[in-house]
């Protein structure tokens, strides 16, 4: 099957290679092809494939193309992010940056928050000025970047979801650290929290992730990954 056919089957609206819209007829034909290959039992409704099949697709075409094929899914099945499995796609007008392969989630999170607060910066210059290391920045280093750019912040620990809801109630974003609850050394990551709201009847956390993604995370999932560390804007000049 072609990339376009796989994207059609998995629910993507556009061809991840050309950007062209996928037609309903193409979608049905692609599903029929999947039926013939034995990957699905019907051409109607939503087609679901196993994680093993998705990982094989990712191995063949790469993570970025696979995520575009998945359409409604935010992350690829190989993601180590503890918020990945049930992340809900989110549209936002606020800046979303992508750190790529470099361990610079702290720098990129600062740049996103600074932009929202009317203090845009060049993230490459932040990386040059403050440097970065394989295990990323510490919260106090993230706080220093904010303060050096005229945003006074609190560097908190042991915070709760109620605290985050209060801090963001006026529209100001905050930076938090998440980690794999089972193995914090395996995955540790700074993200931007824009607020806590409801989506389709469930309470969710609105997140801008410096892996180039914006999504909602159900609060039960977020609670397990949230370390309690938060860098919170106090006032700014």
Automatic annotation (TrEMBL):
GO biological process assignments: proteolysis
InterPro entries per the UniProt record, alphabetical: Peptidase_C39 (IPR005074)
Gene Ontology terms, MF aspect: ATP binding; peptidase activity
GO cellular component: membrane
Residue intervals of the Peptidase C39 domain: 99-233
Alphabetized Pfam families for the sequence: Peptidase_C39 (PF03412)
Name this polypeptide is given: Peptidase C39 domain-containing protein
Species per Swiss-Prot/TrEMBL record: Acinetobacter colistiniresistens
């Amino acid at each position: 099957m072609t990339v376009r056919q796989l994207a059609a089957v998995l629910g993507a609206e556009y061809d991840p290679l050309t950007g062209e819209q996928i037609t309903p007829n193409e979608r049905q034909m692609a599903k029929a092809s999947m039926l013939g290959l034995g990957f699905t039992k019907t051409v109607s409704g939503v087609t679901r494939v196993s994680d093993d099949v998705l990982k094989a697709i990712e191995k063949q075409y790469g993570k970025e193309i696979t995520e575009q094929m998945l359409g409604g899914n935010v992350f690829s099945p190989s993601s180590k992010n503890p918020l990945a499995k049930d992340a809900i796609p989110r549209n936002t007008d606020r800046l979303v940056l992508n750190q790529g392969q470099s361990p610079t989630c702290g720098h990129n999170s600062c740049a996103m928050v600074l932009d929202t607060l009317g203090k845009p910066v060049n993230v490459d210059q932040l990386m040059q000025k403050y440097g970065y290391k394989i295990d990323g920045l510490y919260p106090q280093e993230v706080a220093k970047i904010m303060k050096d750019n005229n945003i006074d912040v609190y560097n908190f620990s042991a915070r709760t979801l109620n605290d985050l809801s209060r801090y963001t109630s006026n529209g100001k974003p905050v930076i938090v650290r998440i980690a794999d609850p089972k193995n914090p050394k395996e995955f540790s990551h700074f993200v931007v929290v824009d607020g806590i709201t409801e989506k389709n009847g469930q309470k969710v956390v609105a997140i801008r992730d410096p892996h180039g993604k914006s999504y909602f995370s159900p609060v039960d999932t977020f609670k397990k990954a949230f370390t309690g560390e938060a860098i919170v804007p106090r006032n700014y000049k």
